[in-house]
Amino acid sequence: MPELPEVETITRSLRPALVGRTILAGQLLWKRSLAAPSAGKFQAGIAGQTVQEVTRRAKFIHLRLSASSLIVHLRMSGDLALVPGKPVPGKHDRLLLFLSGDSTLVFSDARKFGRIWLLSDPQELFARLGPEPLADDFTPDRLYRSLQARRRQLKPLLLDQGFLAGLGNIYTDEALHTAGLHPLTSSDAVSPEQAGALWAAIRAVLAEGIRRNGASIDWVYRGGDFQNHFRVYGRTGEPCPECGTAIERLVIGQRGTHVCPQCQPLKEKIR
After folding, report:
1. Enclosing H/E stretch for 109
2. How many CB atoms neighbour CB 64 within 10 A?
3. In 10 A of CB 230, how many CB atoms?
């Protein structure tokens, strides 16, 4: 599933090409891709609106339109791409938006898990999300206080979009290794110093992922190469880049998890 860096990469690629374009009409090819409103209201409501801004919130792509907001979550295999002219719909295309300037915004989704919303207020969807990990108001102290307020294993907690928005399996494993924290560590056992290290690690791996245009695995290729620089994710049995110990794979919360047992020891609760 695309995570924050991959979604940010797509958002940045679309922004200069979409802002200022008017949506002439929409062709919904798979009604279940539409989460809200109804297909009829969507078709009527989308036509004639102009794209004013293209941003990202967590793993959502947000197109702020002249009268509402078009929001897309790519889920497992979704993709948004701008193509010239009016293309013949492909096998996995779910929505075509015909734009001024003779181009089409195509939402394709092989596994059909992606979702689209047309909302008057995006906060209907975004209100449940946690803070943005790269935002100025996400501080080491805020992370520490949030960790202390819960008693959950670090890996599942960091994947919880209501706790922190945008992290997925890849970047959580990478951040925990960078911070030297075991994914099974209880959140309320994390010291202020460890929280600071985790905060710095989260921001560092996300920034590096964005710099490299994301990781090009298990999603539509965008030319990213962060997969060539993983520290632990997907490297079971390979040597840790820090100490040389073989990377181990665990299953935590039904998610494959990669750790270095030497660099990320599971310790007793520290106070």
Report:
1. strand 103-109
2. 17
3. 20
Q: Which two tokens stand for residue 213?
A: 């245009």
Sign of the Cα pseudo-torsion (256, 262, 263, 265, in order): positive
Grouped pLDDT means (10 residues each) for the chain, 271 residues: 92 97 97 96 96 98 98 93 95 97 96 96 96 98 98 97 97 98 97 98 97 79 84 97 97 95 81 42
Supply the residues annotated as catalytic.
2-3, 59, 255
Q: Under CATH, which architecture does the 140-259 domain have?
A: Orthogonal Bundle (1.10)
Tokens of 167: 């992290």
How many CA atoms lie less than 13 Å away from 156 in the CB half-sphere? 12
Contact 260, 240 (CB under 8 A): yes
Q: Where in the chain is the domain with CATH 1.10.8.50?
A: 140-259
